[in-house]
Amino acid sequence: MEDCIFCKIAAKEIPSRPVYEDELVYAFYDLDPQAPTHFLVISKQHIASALDLTDEHAALVGHIYAVIAQIARQLGFDSYRVVTNCGESAGQSVFHLHFHVLAGRDMAWPPG
Ligand code: 5GP
Ligand code: ZN
Hints:
Elements: H1 5-10, E1 18-21, E2 25-29, E3 37-43, H2 58-75, E4 81-83, E5 98-103
Antiparallel strand pairs: 1-2, 2-3, 3-5, 4-5
The structure holds guanosine-5'-monophosphate and zinc ion.
């Protein structure tokens, strides 16, 4: 999608530090890390937010969680947090579906 920063990152039109890539998803380190390890997993398909997900995306979302687990094993994490902010009030600032993966420190609950 034109003018979507994460579509441009997925297309390598904007540089990023890669973590993982396949035909469906791209994972890269967050520019403003909130934990010692903080990367984002995005769908290559432009989906504006989690609010737009339907049963048609079930395989994609399942794949994203499997990819996150695979990356976590490779990086040696047995503890991590996955966050998807959905909507402005929930803290979403980029309207292209993404999953934050945070690890390397103790996490508070509930999140703010
Ligand atoms: P949100 O606020 O939508 O939940 O998450 C967006 C995330 O994208 C933020 O954590 C922000 O730091 C990250 N981000 C925004 N622009 C860029 C960028 O150009 N490159 C990278 N690597 N991360 C970005
Ligand atoms: Zn996009």
